[in-house]
Amino acid sequence: MHHPNPALTRRCFSHALAVAGSWPLVCSSATAPTAHDPIVIQLSHVVGADTAKGKAALKFRELAEARTAGRVRVEVYPDSSLYKDREELQALQIGAVQMLATSLSKLATVGGSDFEVFDLPFLFKNHATFRAAVDGPVGTALLQRLEPSGLQGLAFWDNGFKVFSANRPLLSPTDFRGAKIRIQSSRVLVAQMQALGAEVSIRPMANVYEALRSGQLDGQENVPANIYSQHLHDVQSHLSVTRHGYLAYVVLVNRQFWDKLPADIRAALHLALHEATQYANSIAEAENQRALELLKASGKLAVYEPSATELLRWRQALTPVYRQAATWMSPGILRAIGAHHVGTPR
């Protein structure tokens, strides 16, 4: 196997996108591999190393290299240091990177709109209800939808519940009117912000800090760990602990790369990833709670925690999102995920 490197893979990625009909293509170096070269897996993601996803990626590297006795080397690239949000799936499809840990929202472009069901507001009560949704036939069926796009889904990683930050108080749904809020690319999230009267902005995570600092954005939604690790609290004045949506990830590989691996290597990597997934899911909630406490302690944000009565108003304001989503999602996924009772989010 060859030794990919960041400069090479980014050049190959740019070239492939410029050439019509270039997919499928696997990028490789000009140097022929030797029998003693390790198999190199580049794992790219867009958040900090000091988050549940970042730590899980490093845990996978440790376990994969140990379980293959050095036959595999995993290179982890956090913080969009290899590819940004809008690049990473295309890069994986052409083989410019071998593995991603990417959010479920992004997968609608390659696996269909049913992946956006996880963006429905107030859908999950806790981590356990999310795991119940993905650890079974629903999760398996969704991952299979990625295969025609040259991708292989291997695992779901938890993160946690999202909150809102802004340069103004967000004490009720009406406070969003006219505010420019960053979201991930998702029709459900667009509908969510429109229901609140906000102006939608979709941009890569790597660009959010500067956009908030410069005033191009008024606010954004994310989990506390991502807000803290990206230093977004340095350029925001208010945070509302709404826990209105759930953020989670799928670990993906380039299917052509994966299928060409020796069977014993694949088995070892499956085991390493299984253990890394257990680790990721065991720390996600604690990582976000720790980050929330650090955000409070920073003194840079006024942190607002809505009461149960106030959260009911948020739920009611976002109820129309369910009706809208039902027009483009399959009834089967809505029933399977527990979202088919339109207008009654959990």
What is the number of beta strands? 11
Distance between the termini: 48 Å
Gross morphology: globular
What helical percentage do the residues reach?
A: 40-55%
Structural class: alpha/beta
Strand order within the widest sheet?
7-6-8-5-9-11
Residue ranges: pLDDT <50 for 5 or more in a row?
15-26, 28-33, 340-346
- Strand-residue proportion: 15-25%
What does it look like?
- The chain is of the alpha/beta class and 346 residues long.
- Helices cover 42% and strands 17% of the residues.
- It has 13 helices and 11 strands.
- It has a 6-stranded mixed sheet. The protein has a 5-stranded mixed sheet with strand order 2-1-3-10-4, with helices on both faces.
- β6, α7 and β7 form a beta-alpha-beta unit.
- α7 crosses α12.
- The longest helix is centred in the last third of the chain and has 36 residues.
- It is globular, with a radius of gyration of 20 Å.
- 45% of the residues are buried.
- The C terminus is likely disordered.
